Amino acid sequence: MSERNTMERNTVRVSPLTLAVVRHKLKAVTEEMVETMTHTCFSPILNQNQDFSAVVLDADFLTVSQAERVPIHMGAMPLAVRMMADAFADDLAEGDVLMANDPYWGGSHLPDVTLAMPFFEGGTVRLWIALRAHQGDIGGMSAGGYSAGAKEIWQEGLRIPPTKLVAAGKLREDLLRLVSENSRKPEDLRGDLLAQLAAVRIGVTRLGDLYQRYGAAEIGACVAAVLDGGEAVTRAMLKECREGVHTGLSHLEYAHAPGGLLPVPVSIEIRDGHAVVDLTGAPDQVKAFINSPYANTRAAVMVAFLYFSGDEDGLNDGSARAIEIRTRSGSLIDPVLPAPVGACTSSTACVIIEAVLQALEAADPPRAIGGFARRFRFALSGEDRAGNPFIWHYFFNKGGTGGNRDHDGWANIGGLHNPGGTPSPSIERTEVAYPLLVEEYALATDTGGPGARRGGLGGRLVLRYAGDAPAVLNASGEGVSVPPFGTSGGTDGPGHDYALRDADGTVRPIGVHDAGLEVKPGTRIVCVAAGGGGYGDPKARDPAEVARDVAFGYVSRQAAKDTYGVEVPA
Fold first, then answer.
1. Which of 2, 189, 378, 399 could make an S-S bridge to 530, C-beta 3.0–4.6 Å?
2. Spatial separation of the C-alpha atoms in residues 570 and 567, rounded to whole Å
3. With contact defined as beta carbons under 8 Å apart, do 322 and 235 qualify?
4. Predicted model pTM
5. Burial code of 88-97, b = ≥16 C-beta within 10 A, e = fewer?
6. Within 13 Å, how many C-alpha atoms sit on residue 354's CB side?
7. Could you give the C-alpha distances from 155 to 11, 143, 234, 439, 476, in angstroms and in order?
8. Closest Cα to residue 143, out of 471, 511, 505, 535?
9. Nearest to 350 by CA among 515, 496, 147
10. Mean pLDDT of 284-292
11. In 364-426, which ranges are continuous DSSP H helix?
């Protein structure tokens, strides 16, 4: 924080009422940004699935407020915006808007493009506004990104280091054209970037209104108080944990590793309200798209701690002051060029979160959470009914979340890196806009991991491809060989089960990293999503809740008898 900002903050005592108003106003700024984005962007992955996030950061690039969208975005943006600002340290002016997506400049993976805009008041940068959006296509080997065959970052798409998209209020049309033309859907990318631009500009405008009402000193004091509050609740949570070193271990599904599994170990030392998260034991980076750049790894660690805390006051970067993260350069979770990273946000992030949660379970078992369904997504590309090229991202059927001490898991809103942050698309809009027909979409019986608190159910989706020419499916995911884990005596949930069923009856399983699968006209894509892991001994579940589950179709009568020890009459 600048010396001027610090001095002004230290001279003001902020009232609890003013703090509450300013805190909620900053949240409203981020929410208005995402609503602006929703109503002006072009791509279905954005206007239907809302795969984007908005934050307000202070002058030291710490997140002060965030819209409730994609956690793995928000935990990574502070590093990205810091590096973007550093690149233009001596060349920042009012009206500038910076743009970047490069994982080696603080980004996550290439589809996630971040726009950041400084808010000036009195000639000083007081705050930053940033919005990160997952673009439908950013070039690379595979339509829609997630190039499972990529061996180096350049094969994954267009790298955008910190760049000025807008200089002193003037849009750089040449740069916008360059970026857009590197996409298979240039009109969509151009429109989506302009929507992002509108969103960050409205954010800066709303900050101006707030500063006019309260002034720099009072806003600065509120920002400091918000961050201090985030630190306080996190340290308080850590002080309730058992001190010492706690370990966790999860695995990535990777065909070239022994047994097809790549271990990701973590140890967490907790002392006096402080945690040191050691990920230096992670394996070396690989020539595959599952490496996780540091910003993404940081985000995953913070997401795990916020799950464990469950306190909304910690949803800012003040909480990060209590947590130190150690990595090893050149490893899977802190790679160096030219490592590809396309699956980091939805695959590797889940594995890191799981490992951290398992270590934290040993520190405070009552706070434990069963495993969530990991993300298993795919992109389908081909020609629509009018003969135009299309790229469709699978956002249906996300799987169940884990149970905890107080509640069953949520049904079919996972995965672990982003629970509920990206809504499922409209079935009707999907069928109208794409050569796809949804033949079945329902919760899948017996998919929730058994426990005293049951895991949330996964779903069953049957999608028929109704195009005139073959399409191509590229998969990227996890959670087939490694199911959502049970905790505190609970049982694992089942893994995902995806397959292609051709019109002639041939069944072709879809692997987590399969690329270039031909989808013929009439082929059905059958996706049974994983359910969440259970919490506690299944035999300890209230028989009345088991009977309710049977009545609702969540649990079969046979499973009620065999697993829960409850006979439910027909």
1. 399
2. 9
3. yes
4. 0.93
5. beeeeeeebb
6. 33
7. 52, 12, 40, 36, 16
8. 471
9. 496
10. 96
11. none
Rg (CA), the chain: 23
Strand pairing report for 112-121 and 97-100: antiparallel
Predicted pLDDT at 207: 98
Which residues touch 505 (CB under 8 Å, ≥6 apart)?
none
pLDDT confidence bin for 509, thresholds 50/70/90:
very high
- The owner of tokens 């108003």 is 21
Q: Is residue 99 within 8 Å of residue 196, measured between CB atoms?
A: no
- CA atoms within a 13 Å half-sphere pointing along the CA-CB vector of 125: 23
CA 155, CA 170: separation in Å to the nearest integer? Answer: 32
- Report residue 49 as tokens: 């699935």
User: What is the b/e burial string over 295-309, where b = at least 16 CB atoms within 10 angstroms of the residue's CB?
Assistant: bbbbbbbbbbbbbbb
User: Is residue 168 within 8 Å of 95, Cβ to Cβ?
Assistant: yes
Q: Which helix (H) or strand (E) holds 461?
A: strand 459-465
Give the integer Cα–Cα distance in Å for 354 and 479.
Answer: 12
Cα 202 from chain centroid (whole Å):
24
450: cis peptide before it, omega within 30°?
no
- Residue 435: count other Cβ atoms within 10 Å of its Cβ: 21
Q: Could you tell me what percentage of the chain is helix, strand and coil, using 3-state DSSP and rounding each to the nearest 5?
A: 35, 25, 40
DSSP string for residues in 77-100: HHHHHHHHHHHTTT---TT-EEEE
Q: Which amino acid is at 323?
A: I
Please give the DSSP secondary-structure letter assigned to residue 347. Answer: I
Structure tokens at 429: 């809009």
**Separation in Å, CA 259 to CA 223, 373, 376, 509:** 49, 21, 20, 19
Rounded to whole angstroms, the Cα distance separating 494 from 530 reads: 5
Structure tokens at 300: 């995953």
pLDDT, position 36: 97
Question: What are the residues whose beta carbons fall under 8 Å from the beta carbon of 122, sequence distance 6 or more?
Answer: 216
